[in-house]
Amino acid sequence: MNKILMFSGGIDSTYLAWKLMSSGIFLNLHHVSIRNDSEKMWKPQYNAIFGIIKYFIENGMNFKYTQSEFHFFGWRLIGFDSDILLLAAQKVAQNFDGKVEVLLGWNPADMLRPTIADRAKRSVTANIWSALVQSAPILDMIADLKYPLIEWDKTKEEMIQEMPKDLLDMTWSCRRPVDGNPCGHCHACKAKNNRLF
User: FRET label pair with 89: which of 54, 80, 99, 197, CA 20 to 30 Å apart?
Assistant: First the structure.
C-alpha cells in the first residue's frame, strides 16, 4: 500500500519517517509549508527539512519528497494546521495507483491537550477527512488516516532518546522563533533541549 507521511520536520514526524524507513518501508514524504504573518516558523522549518532530507539520502533511506505551500499573509487567524494538512493529503493521495494510507505524526500527549481533546470528542478530524475522501474522484482509493505514534504509545521522551542525535538536532519545532532562532521557552524547545527530561 502507498504511504504518505505528512512531514513537518519536527521531532514527531522526523522520528516516524526515520523509524519506518529504517525498517525498509518506502515513504512518500509531503511537507505543507503554512506561511503567515503571525508565526515565522516556516522559514527555519523550510531550511531544517532540507537538512533532514539530505540526511535521509546519505543514510540510504528509500523515499520521495514533495511539498506544497499555503500563503495566508495579511490574515491574523487561519485555524488549525491539521485541517490544512488533511486537504493537502487528499490532493496528493489522488495521484497514486492503488490504495493510499495517510500517516500523521501525532503522539499520545497531543491528544491530552484540551483543544485537541475537544476536537477528538467531536470527531472534527475524522469528519473533515471523511468529507475530503467523499469528494475524491475515486472514492475507494484513499484508506483511513493512521497515527502510528499513538498506536505505538510512543512518548516524546522516547522519540528524543531513540533518534540519532545528529538527526534530532536538525529538527525544527519552535512556532515563534526569535530572529530565526528557537525561542527556547515553548514546550517544543524545552523537549528538544532536554534529551533526558
Answer: 54
